[in-house]
Specification:
The chain is of the alpha+beta class and 458 residues long. It is built from 16 helices and twelve strands. β11 and β12 form a beta hairpin.
Length: 458
């Protein structure tokens, strides 16, 4: 009986999340997952690292793209779209990349500034007067991008889907909000910032395009592919998916949680019994939660109050976002409205090509690029509960607890692990890396992407 209990515990808690049978105990018995796409032979060890993650079950389906000095060296994918492992995940597969869309949100604001249509140092109310009510009159676009507007993911009341799906009703709702924190407080703009960016874009763009249409036409269509008829293989879009065309819908993959048994016995207990589990799970184990994860997750799990007497998780937020992967998938309410800061849909190739073009000065002028890359002083983020250095564009700069990578890296990540990053290595190599997955990691820190990126940099 003790042996059975030990094996069961190992199977549920410490085994890869989507392993099968004896593969959960012995990696040599795992059936190798085939890869699709192309890569230069010298980078085979990087592709092998992703293939191993897919083979043993740490990933279900994933794509990876790497460009070095503007040249594509890796464009691969592998695994499956579904838990039953019947639908192949390929380089054209798209799925939710969550906050990776914040990079594109900031890029949109950079393009608008480069065209002379706005200045991010100006108050938002200059372009959208109604926004200035309830103490928001001095909040600038730069405040919004750099997580210093005072907004997080909470609202004064929960918005209905009727509000979120209507530009006019949503604008009125957002404009009427009183923000949680005073302007200047550093608190990660987790979900809804793109509602504000979208409203600004529709007001200053001569064509009155939405934020998603703007970035598609100004960037992704210029990269080749990604048209709204579903004919392009490189796609970046905000919901809804349905009605976009058969190719978009057929390429779409739902995202998946780790198994409930793993979450209940292997993940959530770490919040309450971190000392025990730290001995069971070795450092580097993908299921292991670190102090930063615990600081972020404990208030969500236990409804624990912060020092000032409240919890973000007690306050109104978007509807239907408390059901795990069921909240995020194709037919859910979460995918019925555009919110580029949190519900963008793409793949590794499209994300990396866009960031690579932006960082190479092909999207905006050098003066605009330098402005958006300029780092702000390191500060403590109230929501992420860590010190972090944000660039003016809102992504992280350099080495940090969340991104223990390299001091010359700029980028961001999405819920579950999707990552987009640009690094300057040795002063001569410009490396753009993107990793998109459909299996949502429970930890905040991006262990899977970081492991591959470390190997690439080395």
């Amino acid at each position: 009986i003790p042996l059975v209990c030990i094996l069961a515990f190992q199977y549920i808690v410490s085994s890869p999340w989507y392993c099968s049978g004896m593969c959960c105990f012995n990696e040599s018995s795992c059936k190798t997952v085939s890869m699709n796409g192309t890569y230069e032979p010298k980078y085979a060890p990087i592709v092998d690292a992703l293939q191993r993650s897919l083979t043993v079950g740490w990933d279900l389906g994933a794509s990876m793209f790497v460009a070095i000095n503007g040249t594509t060296v890796i464009d691969v994918a592998g695994g499956y779209k579904d838990k039953a492992k019947t639908k192949v995940y390929d380089t054209s597969t798209i799925n939710l990349v969550f906050s990776c869309g914040k990079i594109m949100e900031a890029m949109s604001m950079a393009i608008l500034e480069d065209k002379g249509l706005l200045n991010i140092d100006n108050p938002i109310a200059k372009y959208w007067p109604e926004y200035g009510q309830n103490g928001k009159d001095e909040i600038t676009i730069k405040d919004l991008l750099t997580h210093r507007s005072g907004s997080t993911f909470n609202f004064n009341t929960e918005p209905s889907l009727d509000i979120l799906q209507s530009h006019e009703k949503r604008d009125a709702f957002i404009a009427a909000q009183t923000y949680l924190y005073p302007r200047g407080t550093v608190a990660y703009r987790m979900m809804s910032s793109a509602f504000v960016s979208d409203a600004i874009c529709r007001r200053v763009d001569p064509q009155k395009r939405t934020l998603a249409s703007f970035i598609m036409e100004e960037v992704f269509d210029q990269l080749g592919g990604g048209d709204r008829e579903g004919k392009g293989k490189e796609a970046f879009l905000s919901p809804p998916i349905l009605g976009r065309g058969e190719e978009y819908e057929s390429n779409f993959s739902e995202v998946h949680d780790v198994w409930t048994s793993t979450m209940m016995l292997g993940i959530l207990p770490q919040v309450l019994l971190p000392g025990i589990y730290s001995k069971v799970l070795p450092d580097g184990h993908y299921s292991k939660l670190y102090d930063r994860d615990l600081a972020h997750l404990k208030p969500a799990v236990t409804k624990q109050k912060y020092e000032d007497g409240f919890s973000h998780f007690d306050l109104p937020t978007l509807p239907d976002t408390d059901l795990g992967a069921a909240s995020w998938n194709n037919h859910s309410s979460y995918l019925s409205y555009e919110m580029m800061s949190a519900n963008s849909i793409s793949n590794a190739r499209a994300l990396a090509k866009a960031l690579d073009a932006f960082m190479a000065g092909k999207v905006v002028r050098e003066v605009t690029l330098e402005k958006f890359l300029k780092p702000l002083p390191e500060a403590y983020d109230r929501l992420l509960t860590t010190n972090i250095t944000y660039a003016t564009g809102g992504w992280t700069v350099g080495n940090s607890d969340l991104f223990p990578i390299h001091e010359d890296c700029n980028g961001w990540f999405g819920y579950g692990g999707s990552t987009i990053m640009h690094c300057k290595i040795g002063g001569i190599h410009n490396v753009t890396f993107s990793y998109v997955e459909n299996l949502l990691a429970p930890a905040l820190r991006l262990n899977r992407a970081i492991a591959v990126l470390h190997k690439l940099i080395a």
